[in-house]
Amino acid sequence: MEKPKKKIAAPRKPARSRKRKTVYSPEEVHEIFRRFSVQRPEPKGELEHVNAFTLLVAVVLSAQATDAGVNKATRDLFKVADTPEKMLALGEERVGEYIRTIGLWRNKAKNVIALSEALIRDHGSEVPDSREALVTLPGVGRKTANVVLNMSFGQPTMAVDTHILRIGNRIGLAPGKTPEQVEDTLVKIIPAEFMRHAHHWLILHGRYVCKARKPDCVACVIADICKSAEKTTEIPAPLVELAPQA
Fold first, then answer.
1. Enzyme catalytic residues
2. Which domain holds residue 143?
3. pLDDT at 231
């Protein structure tokens, strides 16, 4: 008796990756950032520093720590070590004493010394102005590199922290599960004229208005544009002048 032939299953089609898109029109995105620019014409990062090197160190130390906590620790550190050579001369133990109040301070002290050595050895003691070079330094990831490139070299980068990741998803501006996904969308939709300060505007908005526990919609300059499901029921009038209608 002839055995029944086994059915060969058809090959599965590769799953299509779901593209995460903003729920805002280009005109709405432009208006969001125009209002941010009116509210804070010259936004500043809150990490204290005196040059590109101390900014790099401060951002490395800020991982899983608050800017205020980092500033408290680095004020005295940067008075005695504002160059890679001076930092290296202090040594890991002494650096650790300065930053002991910061979370993960032991590992961060190692990274600060190691990146100081790398800057001296590979970059003539200068902080490089390319992301590719920065991310090779100990303790430096994409977000840290983007902050340094933006603040020290004026490059239009988008450094996605917890605030920007939350806002991107909460209001639907740049939905994504990872910082990279959110960054990818933001750099595509934000008008070039606003990219220089965009990451600062979003960080400050998330820190002081669109806060993690409860967004302060009454104080929000984009409340009437925002499409978040978490908005309060009463939407205030715009706090800044609307763009003229065509």
1. 143, 161
2. 52-153
3. 74
